[in-house]
Structure formats: structure tokens, C-alpha cells
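Fold these two proteins, one after the other.
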Amino acid sequence: MARLSLEELRKLRESKKREMRRRDSAGKDIRIIVGMGTCGIAAGAKNTLDSFIEALDGDELADTVMISQTGCMGYCNSEPTVEVVVPGMPRVLYGKVDADAARDIVRTHLKGRELVKDRVLDGAVAG
């Protein structure tokens, strides 16, 4: 194994710190839950998860949003599916969430506090 320079080690440390902050739930009141069951993964849920992470990296919301994974949400025909929980708003289940939709959800739902209505699964908004 090749030795890493001090600068490379620092970059690696910062990268790992960012990853750990993403997984830490302390102080995070907004949740994004990506369905990563077999059907979700086959439909591109990994790309969706990565798109949410990229959209939030370096953003002011990064320290208030917890991104996690779950199994099948039961909407196989609408994969990738994503549940979004924002205080003061209804829990929402979005369907067919690709990279563009993930960025739109961050911009419109998380920042703008409005639902992305064309992606909401029928009957998937709880009060």
C-alpha cells in the first residue's frame, strides 16, 4: 500500500468527518429517508441517495438534515421512493425520485417549504 502524504491524510480526515456528520442524528430535525429495497436499488435509488448528499453538501441545511436508508416502502411501481419529514409540514412520500427530483425536493420542499406536488404519491401525505 502506498503511503499517503500529510495533505492527503488531511483531505481523507475531512472527507470522513463529513460522512460522519451526515449520519449523526443529533440536532437534525429534517429527515430524508430513501427506499433502498431491491426494487428501489434496481430503479436507481443509489443515484438518488447520492444526489441528495451532493445537493446538501456544503449547504446551510447540511447540519440540520439526516439522510438515511430503509427497505421497501411498498410502492414498487414508483421507485425510487423517498420520504421527507420536515417539522411543521406533513410527512410526504415522493415517487420516481431521480437526481433532478432530488435537487428539486431540496430546493422546493426543504428550503422553500412547499411540496413538489408532481412527485407526491397519491395518498402519501399524512397530517
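Now the second one:
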Amino acid sequence: MIFQIVITSTAGIVIGILQSTLFARITPLNIVPDIALMILVASAWRYGSLPGEISGFLIGLGFDAMSLAPLGFHAFLFTLAGYLFGRMKDNISPGQVIFPVAAAVGVTAIKYGGSFLLSLIFGLNSGAIRYFSLNTVWELLANMFFAPLVFLLVSLAARLSEGRRGGFH
């Protein structure tokens, strides 16, 4: 479990750094899909709620360190997403496209709805916190487009890292 948390958190933070620097410069109209959040959702579904929560918290702290949002803002949102999608581990079997796309819609709603609610509750009026806009719709569409690929890559990486299970040889 520790290995999965370390790999997921490291991948999420590295992709988060790339999202905010490199991807923001090369994507058209400055619309960047939230690949780090998709990695969190895919790995939380794969490994369960506890690794999803811990990985979400660590990735969120990484995002908090990179942004102007208050410390713990992204950590809360990513922890919530990791927990909720980790709870689906044994309840939903993802297909190739339908579940990843639905997960992208759900996690984008959690991200923007949660940030809106947190800003209302705590009176956050920071320019670093994005609310619903036309860019939100474009980001949602980009998340939906890239979600099946991210789920596939996380699944392949998990199979490679888990190795072969015991049994008769």
C-alpha cells in the first residue's frame, strides 16, 4: 500500500507541476485538462479509499504549495475525491470508456463545486480560486477526452508494478 501511495502521489505532483507550467503554455486557449486529478481518481478506484485519501491529501498539498490558494484548500478537495472514488473500488467495474468519462464529469464537479462551497463557507475571495466559467466547460470536455487514456495507463502501470500473483507454476 505504501508503494502505491508513493507512486500515485509522486506522479500526481509531477504531472501537476507540468500542468501548471509546460501544458499551460502549449495547449490552445490555455485550457489544461486536470491529468493529476484523473491519475488520483484512477488509482483511488484501483487501490481503494485509504490510499486514495492519503494520495489525494499529498497531491493536494503539492497543489497548495504551487498555488496562491490557502494551505489545505486543494488538499481537502483532492482528499474528498480520493475517498469518494476509492469507495467505488469493489462496487463498480470500470469499462473502457463509460466509467472514466463519468468519473471525469464527477471529479470535475467535485473540484469546482467544492471550491465554490469552500469559498462561500470560509469567505475566500482570492483570485487564485477559479469558479464556474466557460473555461470550466472546456476543461470538463478535455477531462472527459483524456480520462479513458489516463485510466488505461494507470491500469497498465498497476499491473506492471503488482507483479505476478502466486499460484501454480
